[in-house]
Amino acid sequence: MKIAFFDTHGFEKIIFQKANEQFHHEITFFETRLNEQSAHLASGYACVCAFVNDRLNTQTLEILQKAGTQLIALRSAGFNHVDLVSAQSLRLPIVRVPEYSPYAIAEHAMTLILSLNRKIHRAYNRVRENNFSLEGLVGFDLNQKTVGLIGTGKIGSVMAKILNGFGCRVIAYDIVQNQKLIEMGVQYVSLEELLKNSDIISLHVPLTPQTRYLIDEKSLSLTKSGFMLINTGRGALIDARALIKSLKSGHIGYAGLDVYEEEEGLFFEDLSEKILQDDKLARLLTFPNVLLTSHQGFLTKEALENIARVTLENISDFENGKELKNEVFKPKNGIQK
Ligand code: NAI
To answer: What are the distances in angstroms from CA 320 to CA 1, 45, 313?
Structure first.
């Protein structure tokens, strides 16, 4: 199948080319992100392959459909960047990679917790300048600390197991309870209880109208002073303005963020020669107790290989008229799963 591959990065191109040796699709790699301005590039391609910061709004989808696109293959688990209602009315099926390595993201969330706690980001810079002082580097034992997981799906479940190994008390909030986690000792509580009792809170829910700004001024007011907030879910789960306000007041003790509300156009790019125009991001980068990574939770060899294989398999299934097992449907009652 002819595939227009948008927002191509060096780290994935080689892996997709290798995986495609088994599938024999005809792939053209475009570096530009997909949006209403660039959608015309897909003219004549039956399939469009998109990533998390491509903008698949009504306008983009209409241009694609008119230009002959028959399938949108997302090489991500999340699909909050696609207007599903428009896709459905344009009869454009959307497929995704629902699971490629929950370990990659959970392990990254754990990396953020450990690095922030033991101040590795600061210690690294310090010793490189021959500053071997330990002042300001005191951490805390994770053993016996209460960690609140918001979302215990694939990634949240792995996170619960990792935290169990560290001797943490794991509490969780989810609309669906996972029996295996309960047997492991995880205790499901209300969102309010989780916010009030957690020393660390880690977000693992998808971005939906229900979860947008789940962490805002009101929910932050319930949290423990000095708590640690980790977000490897989606940026808009947190209201960045409320986060900055709480960090400035000293209420939030630590924040580890792999995602940011306005990351489109920033994350995945080398902007080291440019002036950063996003004032909220610029402010976040000034806090010594904030550790930011640019959406790299998924970035392991195993995850990338799985993403490439499943994406190309999804496209072959469509081409061969098979059932699309990874199709994304318009959410019923506004709830996305
Ligand atoms: P999943 O679908 O397995 O789990 C999501 C969980 O959230 C489910 O248990 C669901 O019941 C729960 N949930 C949904 N809406 C809720 C609500 N309103 N209130 C409470 N719980 C709710 O998804 P998975 O694979 O664990 O991924 C979670 C999220 O992680 C993805 O949606 C994506 O946004 C993000 N992600 C981030 C990556 C990164 O590189 N940083 C990579 C992959 C995913």
So the answer is: 10, 16, 10
Q: How far is the CA of 312 from the centre of ligand 1 (A)?
A: 23
Q: How confident is the model at residue 332 (pLDDT cuts 50, 70, 90)?
A: low
CB 189 within 8 A of CB 173: yes
Share of the chain above pLDDT 70, in %: 98
Neighbours of 24 (CB within 10 A): 9
How far is 59 from 34, CA to CA, in rounded Å?
11
What does the alpha-carbon distance between residue 161 and residue 14 come to, in Å, rounded to a whole number?
33
Length of the chain as a residue count? 337
* 193: its two tokens: 């209880």
Q: So what's the pLDDT on residue 287?
A: 98
**Residue with tokens 């990338």, as numbered in its chain:** 304
The pTM assigned to this predicted structure is 0.92
Q: Mind telling me the catalytic residues?
A: 234, 263, 295
Around ligand 1, the residues with Cβ closer than 6 Å are 77-78, 102, 105, 151-156, 174-176, 204-208, 210-211, 232-234, 258-259, 295, 297-298
Band (336; pLDDT cuts 50, 70, 90): very low
Q: How far is residue 329 CA from its own chain's centroid?
A: 20
Helix (H, G, I), strand (E, B) or coil at 128: helix
Q: In whole angstroms, how far apart are CA 299 and each of 24, 172, 268? A: 25, 26, 11
**What is the structure's pLDDT at 333?**
43
Nearest Cα neighbor of 152 from 129, 125, 170 is 170
In whole angstroms, what separates CA 20 from the centre of its chain?
25
